[in-house]
Specification:
By secondary structure, the chain is an alpha+beta fold. It has nine helices and 15 strands. It folds into three domains: about 20-110, Immunoglobulin-like (Sandwich); about 130-190; about 205-340, Glutaredoxin (3-Layer(aba) Sandwich). The chain is elongated, with a radius of gyration of 30 Å.
Length: about 350
């Protein structure tokens, strides 16, 4: 009887130790067909968590400990990377094809459903397509599209029953962020739509030191080039813009170049920024109307300009024709001018 009791205590102790130990680390087995790499790395945002060397049977197999349940990166080379949700206590096996990394993955074992969900999320995001096409929809169609996106995300989440709460929270945050982006961008795009009044720049300095505003050119089409002296792609467009100015010199259109040179790139000095702009205009003998925005970037912000060069076409009534007009080197620009009778 004593021996049986002792044996039972030993079994319970072993089970207890095994269960406790399993919560302190996770097991990972990765088997890849067509694999040519000998090392598999688990990475976090802070750096390497674990390096696993391939075994003689061609399988990556090891245990590791992660700081917390989170999405990490599984990598065999810089070009073969995949997200993976890991948490201590998991026992995950992955089978796939190295030539179809991530998309071929099949997960089994404890924690596998979390990673199957991540792959499904990625697949769903690819189905969304080009965001620009969604933002170009009419208002009713846009609202229907957003509703459909929300329903599809909810349906995807509900189809996986054993997902970790951390991953659920992340998925909900990603969906909220995506929907928020679309709604905010759509609202801004409507404000910049064709036929809507253009935001106005006011009292920008011209080369002679005078102040000019968009209203100064009322009654004319206005083609605006937002640029800077440090911007290589901007400088590449200058010869094309100069030729356009010559060709349309007698037409009802004003060509305005607005420099966004600022203090940050000029030793913290606004005076130095203006001098650099003036020197460039003079050295290159730039034509058309040359303006410097100085400290006032309200016009750029209104047009959501986050990269330059940016070209804008405004009609004689001050309304937007194209908030993102073709660049001077683009043949479509002349076609647009001709369609407007310029």
């Amino acid at each position: 009887m004593k021996n049986k009791s002792f044996l039972l205590l030993m079994v319970l102790a072993i089970v207890s130790c095994s269960t406790e130990h399993s919560k302190e680390y996770l097991s990972l087995v990765v088997q890849l067909e067509n694999n040519t790499d000998s090392i598999l790395t688990i990475l976090s945002r802070e750096g390497t968590i674990k390096i696993i060397k391939i075994q003689k049977d061609g399988i990556f197999k090891d245990t590791l400990k992660v700081p917390k349940g989170a999405v990490y990166t599984l990598q065999t080379s810089p070009k073969t990377r995949a997200p993976i949700f890991l948490k201590n206590g998991f026992d995950i096996e992955i089978k796939g094809d190295a030539e179809k990394f991530m998309t071929s993955f099949e997960f089994t074992g404890k924690g596998s459903e979390n990673n199957s969900f991540i792959l499904a999320q990625i697949s769903e995001s690819q189905r969304i397509g080009d965001p620009a096409l969604i933002l170009a929809l009419e208002e009713t169609a846009f609202k229907n599209k957003i509703t459909d996106l929300e329903k599809r995300q909810d349906s995807l989440l509900n189809s996986y029953k054993n997902i970790d709460s951390i991953l659920i929270e992340m998925a909900n945050q990603q969906t909220a962020s995506m929907i928020g982006y679309f709604k905010k961008a759509y609202k801004k795009n409507k404000a910049m739509a064709k036929g809507t009044p253009s935001p106005e720049f006011k009292k920008y300095t011209n080369f002679k030191g005078r102040k000019k505003s968009l209203s100064s050119y009322a009654g004319k089409y206005v083609y605006i080039d937002v640029w800077a002296t440090w911007c290589g792609p901007c400088i590449q467009q200058i010869p094309f813009l100069t030729n356009l100015e010559k060709e349309y010199h007698s037409k009802n259109i004003e060509f305005i170049s607005i420099s966004t040179d600022e203090s940050r790139r000029n030793g913290g000095s606004w005076d130095a920024a203006e001098k650099k702009w003036r020197k460039f205009v003079e050295a290159k003998a730039l034509t058309g109307t040359q303006l410097w925005a100085g400290k006032d970037n309200s016009f750029q912000r209104a047009y959501q300009i986050n990269s330059i060069p940016r070209f804008i076409l405004i009609d004689p009534q001050g309304n937007i024709v194209d908030a993102n007009a073709p660049k001077p080197s683009d043949p479509r620009l002349k076609k647009l001018f001709n369609s407007l009778g310029i």
